[in-house]
Amino acid sequence: MLNFLNLSQAWIAAEAPVAIVVLPLIIGALCALINKERIAWLLVLLTTLICSALSFVILREVMASGTISYGLGGWDPPLGIEYRVDGLNAPVLMLISVIGVICTLYALRSVTAEIEPKKRGPFYGAFMISFAGLLGMVVTGDAFNVFVFLEVSSISTYVLVAMGASRDRRALTAAYNYLILGSIGATFFVIGVGFLYMQTGTLNMADIALALSESGESRVTQVAFAFIVVGLGLKLAMFPLHLWLPGAYAYAPSFVTAFLAATATKAALYLLLRFVFTIFDPTADFIISALTWLLAVLGVIGMFFASFQAIFQTDARRLLAFSSVAQVGYMLLGVGIGTMAGVTAGYVHLLGHAMTKGALFLCLGAMWYQFGVTRISDFKGLGKTMPWTMGAFTVAGISLIGVPGTVGFVSKFALLTAAADKGWWWAVAAIVFTSILALVYIGRMLEAAWLQDRPQVDGVDVATREAPASMLVAMWALAIACVVFGVNATWPLELANDAASVIMGGAG
Amino acid sequence: MNSHLILRTVSKFLIPLIVVYGLYVHFHGDFGPGGGFQAGVIVAAAVVLYALIFGIDACKVAVPPSWIRIGMTVGVMLFAGTGVVTWLLGGAFFDYDVLKYDPDHPAGQHLGIICVELGVLFTVATVMVAIFYAFGSRTPDISDEDW
Amino acid sequence: MLSFIYAAGGPATISPPTLIIDIALMAMLVVVAFAIVRMRSLFAIVMLQGVYSLMCAAWFVTLDAVDVAFTEAAVGAGISTVLMLSAMLLTDRQSAPVGAKKSLGPLLVCVLAGAAMFYAIPDMPAYGDANSPANTGPGMEYMTAAVTDVEIPNIVTAVLASYRGYDTMAETVVIFMAGLGVLLLLGLNGNAGFWQAKVQGQNIFSLTAPRTRILTSTEDKPETEPPAPDEAAPPKPKPKRKPAAAKKRAAKKPAAKKTAAKKPAAKKTGGKGSAS
């Protein structure tokens, strides 16, 4: 009966979807007790590494044999909770866990500067739980389970953002704002799930989809859709609901910002895709009009509005935060186009932007770590004082603009062609124009960093002081990924294509 | 608070009863309403009552803050640990049936449910007390005259 | 337990007395909710929230959700009232008046959300309908399956701890996280965040650096090596509002600084207290 040594490959492959969530949860709880920060850090690094390995195993399984389904507790899906991994969520799982590894690597040095010594162990615990929450949100095939893990990740994220208070007290107000808006979002989401339950009598996503396609359109379904889209919109910072994002990103500890920017909004976007396309019937009239008028139009408005706001920021982190809102607009536009090409483009942008923005925020964190840089005006001469950090920032920055040879270009080009195919020339114009705006706000920083002289203190030039090695490795890993996937884009495009074909399965 | 003789006497008698009632709610959760969550809140209420009557410093001697940090983790560990044990015994995660085999009735289910509910009890009770300690230990900015 | 609802088969088999109780309780909930919104005294609001929870619990009992009622009574009416009171003790007795403009947004959200729910009413299954999806799908399956699968009389516990035990684990983690957050942000002894760290050779003290900055200085730059003073920076609304808020706070309670100075002492006595 004791199958202790049953850790065969097959066992790991079968249990990986659960292990990838439960392992960080347990480690997170354990970290709350650990006072030695190095031990906590090592545990976290090890966990994220194992989770990445598991996510690769899952991805390979999905690629080889299609959808993985796992009945938790040994119960069959409609009764118990089901974990369901297919081409749509497997890449997101991988993205989250790999970004987790990179951010943990980076955290070794950044946490020493930002978090008080006694609290570092529990702080890592909170990070682990947020990590597990995001993974749990993505991996599950049960609508209510999504809500529960949404709460796990949200609550821990509020705490993580508030921990920036030891650097800047405004983190507390930012976290409070996020808490209020995030709770409203979660409430809306759960109301929507409740309405779905009223309509279908089940919580399993596949079951709901089946029941909805049988019962046809009803007002209950429409209201459920509205509540779920608004709830998730708050989480993914859809344009008019993005108010929490700039503050939270600007004042959170730097590696938390990078992690959130690269994963949290992406997981929420994945959920939006999952709900809109695979649970609700995407051919229904109200969903088609919502895609066009809500997601696409709001996405474009958000692209303009947030890009303009980014241009007028003085704080570098707020600038990048507004840029994130604009980038969410691109993804929503891709989703709103509603064709196979559009969703593929949105999905590639999701993956690519995660790397790009992650790298940018990591670089900003390193600049603060060494020179206390927070404002754009502080960028003066950074190319000379921190050449490697600024190099990574530049690479990621041009990827954000969408220069050919970077992943940003791949996704923007895919988006352009998708919009053109649909005949939405206004969207094409919007993408081009906001890319120019991105050139303006990123270019402003690059110009200050590379073309201006070294800053002086008391008439003496500031010496070159590069970021610590662990930070450099983390940021360059992401920056190089931006270029590699930009030059050779077959892999992300293939993943996105698979994801889109999961979504578009029936609709074509 | 030293003058509230009746309160002190009655609560000295009541507090153990409240804790016992909490445990009853936990272990009777299979049969009647209740379970780990409610039990945890009731146990925490007993601690809060103690703090209200005898002062928070005395309460911190009785229930040291260091326990709280441990209790929180122990709760999660108990819950997730039950799942890990089912794993090691060769079942799916949280498949309580593998915990204990009995041909007549699902004994493993009963065992598993009690274990995970115990985990909930630990976490809920300690977290409630933790939040109370966190607020209660701070000196208020407003004097009593403002009331 | 619930069989008397399902037994009759047809829709709307709720007996009139229960219906009257339901309506009465809901009406009282609405009244209390309005009272909470209208009120300014925080103490009364906290108390009314307790009342609200208790009435919710009573209502859940008439809806046959005894477990939920139990939780609501214990958490909503019990513990959370105490927690809210102890939090209120640290802030104020009266809530500041909120301008009409500021409350317009939330009002709009509430009205829209309510309107959406009303919009859905025509297509909702009737109250107590035995043929509604919720009463025929997996929800009903639990009633039959749990008897043999889990063999415990309380099906709610069976669903909560076994069928959907994984959800409950995540909920436990949510509560754990709440505790961890309190631990990280407030500390258990009321001495939140006294620490120092050495960043690039500069000591940062939690007490001096950020707090004094936010209370006294209008500049929001960290102390580390400002390369050039930022001239002609069009300040965003946030930093602009800051000094005003700080001034208001300082004007309202000059005790703010005093408490900051008092806290280390409180910490020390706390330590001694537990030793003696």
In short:
By secondary structure, chain B is mostly helical. Chain B is 70% helix and 0% strand. Among the domains of chain C are: 7-97, no CATH class; 137-187, no CATH class.
Radius of gyration of chain B equals: 19 Å
Tell me the count of domains of chain B.
Answer: 1
N/C terminus separation of chain B = 17 Å
Low-confidence region ranges of chain C: 1-12, 191-196, 206-276
Number of helices of chain C: 12
Number of strands of chain C: 2
What proportion strand of chain C?
under 5%
What overall form of chain B do the CA principal axes indicate? elongated
Classify the secondary structure makeup of chain B into a structural class: mainly alpha
Summarize the structure in words.
- By secondary structure, chain A is mainly alpha-helical.
- Chain A contains 19 helices and 4 strands.
- Chain A has a two-stranded antiparallel sheet.
- The longest helix of chain A has 32 residues, at 340-371.
- Chain B has one domain.
- Chain B has 5 helices and no strands.
- Chain B has helices at residues 5-27, 36-54, 56-62, 65-88, 107-136.
- In chain B, helix 2 crosses helix 3 (56-62) and helix 2 (36-54) packs parallel to helix 5.
- Chain C is an all-alpha fold.
- The chains are: A mainly alpha (508), B mainly alpha (147), C mainly alpha (276).
- Chains in contact: A-B, A-C, B-C.
- At the B-C interface, helix 2, helix 3, helix 4 and helix 5 of B face helix 4, helix 8, helix 9 and helix 12 of C.
Please give a handful of descriptors for the protein shown:
B: 147 residues; mainly alpha; 5 helices; 70% helix; elongated; C: 276 residues; 12 helices; disordered N terminus; disordered C terminus
What secondary-structure arrangement, pairings included, does this model have?
The complex is a heterotrimer of chains A (508), B (147) and C (276).
Chain A: H1 9-31, H2 37-65, E1 68-71, E2 82-85, H3 90-114, H4 120-139, H5 143-162, H6 170-200, H7 205-215, H8 219-236, H9 244-251, H10 254-279, H11 285-311, H12 316-337, H13 340-371, H14 382-385, H15 387-401, H16 407-422, H17 425-451, E3 456-457, E4 460-461, H18 469-487, H19 490-504
Chain B: H1 5-27, H2 36-54, H3 56-62, H4 65-88, H5 107-136
Chain C: H1 3-7, H2 16-38, H3 42-62, H4 66-89, H5 100-120, H6 133-136, H7 138-149, H8 155-163, H9 165-185, E1 196-199, E2 202-205, H10 207-216, H11 237-252, H12 255-275
Helix pairs in contact in C: 2-3, 3-4, 8-9
